[in-house]
Amino acid sequence: MHAHDSTPATGIDGWLVFEVVAAVLVISVAAGYAWALWTGRRRSAWPVRRTVFFYAGLVCVAASLVGPLAQAAHGSFTAHMTGHLLLGMIAPLLLVLSAPVSALLRALPVGRARAVSRILRLPYIRVVTHPVVAALLNAGGLWVLYTTPLFHWMHGSVWVHALVHTHIFLAGFVFTASMVGVDPDPHRASFKLRAGVLIVFIAAHSILLSGCTRTRPWALKPRTRSSAPSSCITVATPWTSC
After folding, report:
1. Which of 74, 84, 108, 202 could form a cystine bridge with 113, CB 3.0-4.6 A?
2. Is 171:137 a contact under the CB 8 Å cutoff?
3. How far apart are alpha carbons 145 and 135 in whole angstroms?
4. Spatial CB neighbours of 166, under 8 Å, sequence gap ≥ 6
5. Nearest Cα residue to 235 out of 198, 195, 197, 202
6. What's this model's pTM, rounded to 2 decimal places?
């Protein structure tokens, strides 16, 4: 895997800008959650475990986008997959279990809380959060990433990198919420449907793993190729990531 060019003609390090923006967003979300908890403190007690889940999820997001692991991912497929697991699987699971929508609704005035509830009931939101659609968005994105030149483009362009990682996180979050979400959901699919989607999803990942092993998308340059990518992929297969 080749290293990206970090010094464009403009003299601005786009990859550094990406990390700064990502760090600012994570810090802003962390502060927003703290505000929501403080604002809703006079209501029923908020479970401590949900707060722990939320901030642990943000730590996973930050680790995958900023710092040594994120930088190593440009030269090591193992580091890339570790970041992918943190961003697309572990962080979404922790954030979903923290019930972020419930925390937001507790903090807002009644009128605004009802407005948020109406938005969450829009037909578009209902379609996107359906387990089948969420699974297609998640698994489909991974198929495109690892079976097309997109994987190489992602490591050569900061814009493509940002878009791909945004998709990985959002698709992982929506899929996880559709499977095991703890926030109120008037349109939650039946357990049988969710279980069936999960089985097909795992099968799709197994097929993708087999294809990745043959096509070796990480093998851009033998001198920088990861020596053990398959083990990292296999760990993720039981839940959400390639």
Report:
1. 108
2. yes
3. 15
4. none
5. 202
6. 0.83
More confident residue, 220 or 126: 126
Query: Please, are residues 46 and 130 in contact by the beta-carbon 8 Å criterion?
Result: no
Of 69, 120, 58, the residue nearest 93 (C-alpha): 58
Which candidate, 222, 230, 224, 216, places its Cα nearest to that of 73?
A: 224
∠ CA 223-226-229, rounded to 5°: 155
CA proximity to 147, closest of 91, 199, 207: 207
Q: What is the DSSP letter of 221?
A: -
Residue ranges per structural domain of the chain:
14-236
Asked if 136 and 204 count as a contact pair (C-beta separation under 8 A), the reply is no
Assigned token pair, 129: 């959060």
Band (212; pLDDT cuts 50, 70, 90)? low
Give the count of beta carbons closer than 10 Å to the beta carbon of residue 7.
11
b/e for 149-184, b at 16 or more Cβ within 10 A?
A: eebeebbeebeebbebbebbbbbbbbbbbbbebebe
Q: Which of 130, 141, 149, 129 is nearest to 205 (CA)?
A: 141
- In contact, 42 and 70? CB cutoff 8 Å: no
Question: Cβ neighbours of residue 186 under 8 Å, at least 6 residues apart?
Answer: 121
